[in-house]
Give the backbone structure.
Amino acid sequence: MDRQIVFLLVLLLTLLVFGFTVRKYSGYFKHTRKGFPVKQLGRRFGVMMEVAIGQTKIFRRPVMGLLHALVFWGFLVILIGSIEMIIDGLSGTERALAFLGGFHSFIMASGDIFALIIAVGILVFLFRRVFLHVKRFSGIEMKHISHLDANVALTMILLLMVSLLGMNTFYILSATHAGHEVVGLYPISNMFASWIDAGDHNEFWHQFNWWMHIGLIFVFANYLPYSKHFHVFMSVPNVFLSRLEPLGKVDTMESITREVKIMMDPDQAFASPPEGAEAEEEVPERFGIMDVEDVSWKNYFDSLACTECGRCTSVCPANITGKMLSPRKIVMDVRARMKEKGPGLVKNGTDYSDERSLLRDYISEEELWACTLCNACAQECPININHPSIILGMRRYLVMEESAAPGELNAIFSNIENNGAPWQFSQEDRVLWSEGKVEVPLMSDFPAKGENPEYLLWVGSAGAFDDRYKQVSVAFAKVLNHLGISYATLGVEESSSGDVARRAGNEMLFQMQAMMNIELLNGYEVKKIITCDPHAFNTLKNEYPDLGGEYEVIHHSQFLRELMKDGRLSLNGASLSGKKITFHDPCYLGRANGEYNAPREVLEALGSTVEMKRNKSFALCCGAGGGQMFKEAEKGEKEVFIERTEDALETGADIIATACPYCMVMMTDGLKYKNKEEEISNYDIAELVANSLNL
Ligand code: SF4
Ligand code: SF4
């Protein structure tokens, strides 16, 4: 009975301290902003089983991934044994779940085996951390305390496993000596029991290890919330609460939608909402993220779940090329800032100020503007943390509250406002790309004929104005004409999709462009859109629906692949015989929308292909996204486009194939920088198809 009372007191103390921690964090959560609603529970459960329980993203790095996954799965099994220990501790029983028979034996045996696997895994992790210089474990955000914390937590896990094996081993010895039945199976501890025997002290060592194990669990449970190993608790729920939208989709700011609607149609905007409709979000005090109370609950949840593993930073093109940005730091800064400001917010309310802020005191403008919004960090994160949403939130604050965008971006904002394109060209010149080169039908000619084309070809600003990409627009239009596709363009009526404005933080300008375009597209009753530009593809497909524009949007690589499948397009590689092609994945086609195969299938029909070492979801950004195309890169050791061009050159390919206007510009610049433009060509897949058809 004494033992049970002591156990109960220890358990109550543990729960009390844990409850205090939960209360503290829930107070902080109350001072975050509304995020997305948690719906689609079935789908969320599937994502959780796949990513968290199945550990699928961890396996993107197979060797350490396997070790980490084994440790995680082992923890799940051992957890059941720990529940049994708590029941035993409270009720004074020994192996209380033994009545489960075979299942109990299975869990005990699995736990025993996993304890050894975890112990070995932890020793490997500790060795790597202490003796090997693994790049992703370092960085400006990785202070001495971060390393110490990791090592303390790993050592505690090691002791947990040692005490578990010790408990099982001395339980077997003690029960056997006393002539009692050994309940459960313990293959590893049986082996240890055959090597050691403490004679009369077996029961003492059994009890010692039992108390040490349960004591460590209690201490660990209260240490974790203050450690990077909080992810032991947080990672599974964090994955369950993941964003379910495609990576490329940016969340729409409803407060801005309301402002834009008022500007565009004041009568409509002030009309009362229809009965049953949800009331629109109140206009927040400021747009975007300036300090920690501006982040969403999910951003903060992400920051608590972060394992500081550095996988995000290790794939970040800005970080790889020596810029200040580290996505891991962004997430850790949110956590650190809340730790600093949270108590004041809880005590004094949301108006509390300590004269410091997340922006500038923690995260500099230089870090924010170095991001290409390529989503490699979010793709890589094993627990689905979304870093770009924080970066973009802070850009939104800089642009919409402080007008503090870099000068080049301010220039493109005015160009889009005045000319409908990021460049300083007149809207009237949008049709010049095709003049004298290819006949292109215009949408405005169709209503008079009482017809509607099947597809709208969205040319995009680069397709209409960029000298190199105009050739791609011409090539693709020739292919469409050759195959007799029913299509038309908007001509001078087309305007910037708003993609670049949105990613540069100007949500207001994006929504104005989007609403204007949607009105035009809906007026023409457009149903299907083809585009060569993955940025427009992503925006029209994923972001316009939030504002009332629902279309089937098809990237030209997908369209060409479908035509091949239907037998309407047959390609032969005669024009490219003997040439090797390597394909650079555009971020907004690949990672953002999961389309890796369509361009490859088209290219494989044209000639022999070779992959870069970083390809598909691992592909490195060209360096142009997120507004970078229009501004000077932040200082670093190298430009991103050079790093990517080096990937392409390493393959020994004769042709770098691209499927995006920005990638085309960057890879062409990279070839020039490397003095390789005479030897290696850069073509869009539309041009390669047009060439093979002799168009
Ligand atoms: S989106 Fe790309 S550039 Fe930006 S932080 Fe993530 S990996 Fe780095
Ligand atoms: S954000 Fe994700 S990938 Fe980056 S350090 Fe944290 S857990 Fe690792």
Remarks:
- Residues 2-30+61-231 form a domain with the Fumarate Reductase Cytochrome B subunit fold (CATH 1.20.950).
